[in-house]
What does this fold into?
Amino acid sequence: MIDIIERTIAPLPNWAEAPLVALLAAAIGMALGLAVHALLFRVLRRVARSSQSEADDLVVARLARPTRWAFVAMGVVLAARDTPALDAAWSRFAPFVMPLLTGWIAVTVLRAFVEAMMVRNDISIADNRNARRRRTRLAIFSRIGTFLIVFLTIAGMLASIPGVREIGVTLMASAGLAALAVGAAAQPALKALIAGFQMALTEPISIDDVIVLDGEWGRIEDIRTTYVVVRLWDERRLVVPSNRFLEDTFQNWTKTGSQLLGTVMLYLDPATDIAPLREEWGRFITAHPLFDGRAQVLQVTDHSPDAMEVRLLMSAKDGPTLFDLRCFAREHMLDWIRRELPEAVVRRRTLPVAPVEVAADAAMLEAMAAPPPRRGDAG
It folds into this structure.
């Protein structure tokens, strides 16, 4: 093929012959690479569509773009073997292009694998504890793996520069100085990396966990290498450093399960009859659709001269459902007490007493009858 190109451009001047041969050879190699890539991925897409799993379609779609450029580079490499001018030009760019393409494909394969595994672990089902744990591990390891691949790719590209390579060899020779410099510079990154490994292994939190942090209630929306995004109940986002979940205390309402117990406090008159109140509570809670049937209790938990404290205990499948159930229970019981048991409303009692008669003695009467002293008498 190179001979055909050279015979075709033979009438051109000598100074233009070599560059034009190189350009034509590169174009032909790129075209062949694109043609092979298109044919290969057409077959792969048909195979992926024939399967019932969505993971195959996802992997093929993710790999299409980076592998297209990889096939283009392979076409140029094959064309450069028989074209000295193209080989000379390609040898200058290959140390940068090949590590870049390799790293790009590696990152794409990693992310495609992670997304395919996440598709298989659906967290929209009721019992999603194991799926959330797997998704959390996949998310953390994916970001750590991406960081390592990008780091190695950049290192490989920089190593192709002679000056940078010599500096690296010099630093490696002075191991003590290099260790101190690298340790000081990479301390935050290494700390975040180690924290990510710890969170993946110890699992203090998982994706979609319900937590209470600094008095804020929310769900774990995303876990990054250095920070965690918490979606609060009012749609705000709380960004928390990853180390916070390893070093400080917080509440995790879904660590082992999502079912919770909740209470509602009522303050009633001390003379209230508890029997009809307990009967109405049992009737209401057992018929409510948000109640999961695990626990329902009415107890008098405290008493004072002015009121007694009645605790309504209930259970629900998760935190948001429990919050709604508590609100419904509070509204219903207060309304029922107002209509059916008004004497249970707390009131202050006062006892009427007769007027108190005070009798004055003789000394008091004499002092009251005496005229007030004049101003001049005080002297």
